[in-house]
Amino acid sequence: MPIHPDVQAYNDAQSPEDRLICDTLAKAIERHLKGSENKVWHRHPVWFLDGNPIVGYSKLKDAVRLLFWSGQSFDEPALAPEGSFKAAEARYTAASQISAKDLKRWLAKAADIQWDYKNIVKRKGKLVRVKRP
Length: 133
Hints:
Elements: H1 5-12, H2 16-32, E1 37-41, E2 44-49, E3 52-59, E4 64-68, E5 80-81, E6 88-92, H3 100-112, E7 114-115, E8 129-130
Antiparallel strand pairs: 1-2, 2-3, 3-4, 4-6, 5-6, 7-8
């Protein structure tokens, strides 16, 4: 699926360096996360598989944060735990910091290793691992 116009508008609204980071991330996610859909969700670009949030990014005060909802399960030391569930992040202040090789590997793991955030409210905050075919 092509990059959603709202996601592109989000990227376009960033400073030149942050826009380059966002565009680089969006293109890599689109290329490597097959079958995903993307949109601006809670004011930030997010990619979903079967309605489940997988990866997204957001502009923070001092960096662009790449967030994998199930990233703590990837066993990747370069991803830092984020929040009280299973999310993990990487932060970038320049596009040159993005490792295409790492990003491709993380996106492959993101497609394979998923926790069911789509139904977290229905399950009263309990996360269950999604079984992928």
